What does this fold into?
Amino acid sequence: MKATEAPIRHLVIYSSGMIGDFMMLLGMSENARLSHPELQVTFLVTRSASFFREILGYQYPYIEVLSLKQEKETFVKYLVRITKNLLGIALSKNALILPVFFKGDPLKVVLFGWMLTRFPGSKFISFANPNEWIKRILCSDILVFDFKKGFYDNHLETTKLLDIKRVIERPMYRYVPNESVIKRYGINIPYIVMHIASTRRRWTFPIPRWEKVVRQVLDRIPDATIILTGSPADFSFVEKLASLFPKNKVRNCAGSFSASELVSVIHYAELYIGVDTGITHIAGNMSKKAIVIGHQYIPPVFLSYNPNGIVLFNKDACQCRGDATQTCNVIENGELYMRCTFYITDEMIEETLKKLLGKRK
It folds into this structure.
């Protein structure tokens, strides 16, 4: 900061509650904290607040997670409640950042951000599309997302506006693994964690294709167990795969683990295999050895922060520009799948398994 200016006391980051975005923004807040050791950070989330608090644990004492979820209350009462909770921040020099959202932000979030940054010297920073005129009026600084850069690199541009230097090259996640979790759930080592479900079903494989992947893994490490993770809502989809194998070889653990338990399960795994979803981003921040069943525009996001991860997609099969402005799909049994994901070959997976796990045992 300039010598005549006091550094901001509080960095406020809005998050929609998507796990992957939160993990990237966590890296941004860590970078800011290292630049300003007295800085306090508050995440305002619309969902998953308890999940994020558990993910943070005791490793991030400078971060607070507040839920912005509107309960059974009027909009006015909602604003009063939230403003009361954040009054101390509003009465100090702060900065609020609205990360990129491809579908825009609700009007009430933008208005709330403007209200919170009325203290002299505060800044309201946001990404915005050309048609988001309300942001361009109310925000002190506007940025445009660069698809040639990763999520983390784009968002470091917001903190540059606060004279915060880049200290961390890639986002990381500080955690303490708990080996007792593995014993408590009776998980035998070695094991592979696979996360096959995504909220966007077109970003995954059909079950018969996942069956091939499991057999490829077990052919390479015959004594391994496959631990299938997911949310409670993923259980039935995951069970379609688990039911094809003996229970002692493939276990459906969707909905079984808490946030902190899942981190420990991933930590002690021989390998993580997953689709583009929040849990895969957690594994990425952990620098876990990983195979990502990806798509055309995920590499700038993922490869920029996990040196031990390999993202697979079939660029030759893709018929779109791969810049997240449009998608091309293939239909299999009435389900849509992205072409660059669907046409990942068995040979690509086999070669990647060989790189990460070595020769067959």
